Amino acid sequence: MRKAASSAAVGNKALWQEAADRLLARFTQRAPAMKDVVLAFRRVPDDDEHALQREAVTCLLRLYYEVTPVQALEEQVDVSTALAAALTWSEGEAEVSGLIALRALELEHILVVAQHSTGMRWSGKSSGLQYSPIISLLRLHMKDLQNRKIRSLIGQVLEQHGLLVDNAGVDAPLRSTGELTELEALVASLTSSNGEDSETWAFIDDCVARASRQPVKYADQIDAAAAEPHNGGFGCSTALPGLLAAAVAEQAHFVAKKPGVMGFVDKFHGLLSYGTLPSRVAVLVYENVRGLAGRSELEDYDENALIKKTRLVKPQGTNSSGTQIIEKPSLPFIAPPPESDNHPELLRWAQKDLASALEDGDINALILCLCSQHPEIRRQALSQLRILFAKLQASTLEDKGHLSVLIGSLTETFEQQCLQLEDKPLPYLTATFAARALHVLMEPAHFMYPKLNRFIMRSPEWRITRLPSYWLSNTTLSQPEEDDAYWKEVLWVIEWLVDGLRLISCGEGMTGVLEWLGMVEGKIEMAGLVRERVLGSCDGIKVARWSGVGVETL
Predict the structure, then answer these.
(1) 20 to 30 A Cα–Cα from 419, which one of 134, 160, 161, 437?
(2) pLDDT digits over 171-184, tens only?
(3) What is the rounded distance in angstroms from the CA atom of residue 303 to the CA atom of residue 288?
């Protein structure tokens, strides 16, 4: 029986794999060619005004490498210039706080693409960068030592070129303090080298370039050191260090009179020879390097303190006493970036033809301006939406009727329930609903089109407080428009709620969501976390008053 079950499991797995391959093949046939994506990537200007579009196209480029690697490799992509620009931007100071998150995401996407690019020269100087890409990335990592993605990428690049070894421990289980990898030794030795220490960074950059250009030369030096007799071999391993250790040791002779650089050399080789079972070659090299500079010129340092400061913290595992540490689960989304002082989206849509403005998301950005904390921005957005309403009615777009009704309902809702009463922002949940509904109404074949069409036609004004309960009832407790679209409709509503709940200024409109989350808590994953997030972001007194219960009950 077990054998039959095992055979059936193997057969099912093969069947699912075959189905996945067919699905990927069909998707690849219908997806745009890689050359078109690359062309779009090159055409997007690299400025702050196009930061959102640039993040989107770099994300698409990254997904081609991760989802359809065979199709991605059909086109040669050179991201050296884009990577240099992104790294240069990361080393500067952002003038607009809202751009930080977008630029960080763009850099992450470009790094993934560069990692897959066979022609990427990590150790070569790029135009616009003071140092090579790998050293610039290392400098960036020193600002955020707990960034696992960047450290892992640095380790992979240096290990692929043989510059470091034993990089497998980057994300390994917790080790004792005396055990560390060469990557950890490199990062720990740079803790006191800030961005102004140009001599040290230039020295490391030169050593990396030399070891990359002449790997055989430094491999021979390591082999020669391993063959030398050494009385201190007891308690050491026969493992050989990476090429970077040899290049640093060789070039140390030329910087012996520079205390700052020699401080790095001393720490790097000292940490390489530190531990319960260090490399015999590393110990020998360290003794030779330490004799280049006077002992009084080198600063004292605590190895354990450096390692503890730079070692990645395990999010989940066990502590020193053996007690299991369980990380509290978190929601898989972050809050939107802080509102910018500038709002170019107020007029950007008018600079394009109507169809392009709708497709490019400029109308979405205009709608979200109704949520601004500045009354003047909200009034300008309302004025622009009225102009948009008039242009839609006069246009030749096929969906102009439904789209103009949606914009008209949105402006009427904002005027009656936000502007005239308290002059308050439109709830973010309502704005995200309008933005998502806009794109559904542009696709008559969309599974949500019939329900959204009936909704906007039923009344010229929406009841903001009833939006969540209305759509939860009309999806989770109602028949779908298509036989197989029930979970699609539910997922659409849930995604809208998750997006809209990222930014909540008060509890208005949340009572229906709280009631539903209370019912499904324990049945749907993360429902309790969403409810906790809502309560933590709302005005508890107002929520209690609207829901008719005490604050302590919530």
Answers:
(1) 437
(2) 443 344 456 788 99
(3) 19
